[in-house]
Amino acid sequence: MKANCWIAPNNVAVEEVPDPQILNARDAIVRITSSAICGSDLHLLQGYIPAMRKGDVLGHEFMGEVVELGHGVQDGLRIGDRVVVPFPIACGNCNSCERGLYSLCENSNPNAAIAELAMGHSPAGIFGYSHLMGGYAGGQAQYARVPFADVGALKIEDDLPDEKVLFLSDVLPTGYMAAEMCDITRGDIVAVWGAGPVGQFAAASAYLLGAERVIVIDRFAYRLRMAREKTGAETINYEETDVMDALREMTAGRGPDACIDAVGMEAHHASPALHAYDKGKQAVKSETDRPHALREAVLSCRNGGTISAIGAYGGFIDKFPMGSFMNRSLTMRSGQCHVQRYMRPLLERIRKGEIDPSFIITHTMRLDDTPHGYDIFKNKQEDCVKVVLKP
Ligand code: NAD
Ligand code: ZN
Ligand code: ZN
User: Fold this and answer.
1) Are residues 272 and 130 in the same domain?
2) Tell me, what's the pLDDT at 158?
3) CATH of the domain at 159
């Protein structure tokens, strides 16, 4: 089959690779009908997440048709079913899964020992997300093996098009979890750093959960326009306006009740000198991640407020404003999304028309064109927000 493979930093290519096989009783093989490129793939592309190997198949946002089933798959999955696959691989019956913490499944990362060295304890395996997270082949491909398919595949029984349900695999639940972690109460003001797919869905979800005002921060005018037009958020362009001043002004001097970092480890800084500081440290590996948005979110948040860190980090950061965080009684919550927990309720909201996630799609292309998709998504060209691939 054909698949989009990681070759080297900043180099992906569509190559012929062996077809996936059923390896375990609870596996399914899915013929992929739609797959997307995620902001997390950019961190892998640029080599910021360790343990990528030449030839690794990328992609963790996909859906398709079940074409083969292991004999142990329960829960009524049948050949021919249309399914959306969540990005964390989860067994459904370990201690973490039973608590609903699916991205922390204790049974799905065969390389847990390496992850423990880096992180203390291991998170779950993730499709196409480095050998640290299990070395699973991803879904930017014609077929994928889906382990624990009875927990990890949501059957779509009505005729909703792929475009409306595909993002249940990742960015819609992720944006929703980002907003949920803010514990929003009526009247709250929520600020969101990053107007990518995750930031767009975090903003839309914050309104769904009762926020009074949502303020989205980015530097790309076309992404901020999408946030205003599609989610109803107010926006700040951080290249034109000082973010902390603007947020103080918009919140009667107090700061937003909750601040969502939907940027993660490759944050950009409006000041070239400060950008160079983090970029330089990252280059010599004296910090692995550039946490500018996170720092700003901490400093901007109101006293006693909440930081929801949904953007991805890989390792270690520098100059975290711990004094501000501690003295002002802030709370920080975080995590890879526990997608399985949110898929059914969010599918219900899509069915009822409360949200139509397809608004983020700006590009649809053939699997063969995936490297071009990475290019325009990475460089924010052609007003790209989300690329959907049709294998
Ligand atoms: P994206 O690259 O499309 O969006 C990131 C946005 O952040 C860009 O528009 C960029 O201009 C903006 N940005 C950069 N520096 C900024 C700054 N200082 N202030 C404000 N905005 C800034 O990516 P995406 O697909 O939306 O993903 C966003 C993050 O979420 C990534 O780190 C990704 O890995 C992560 N993610 C996490 C999970 C999870 O489960 N926790 C799931 C999916 C994605
Ligand atoms: Zn993702
Ligand atoms: Zn588990």
Assistant:
1) no
2) 85
3) 3.90.180.10
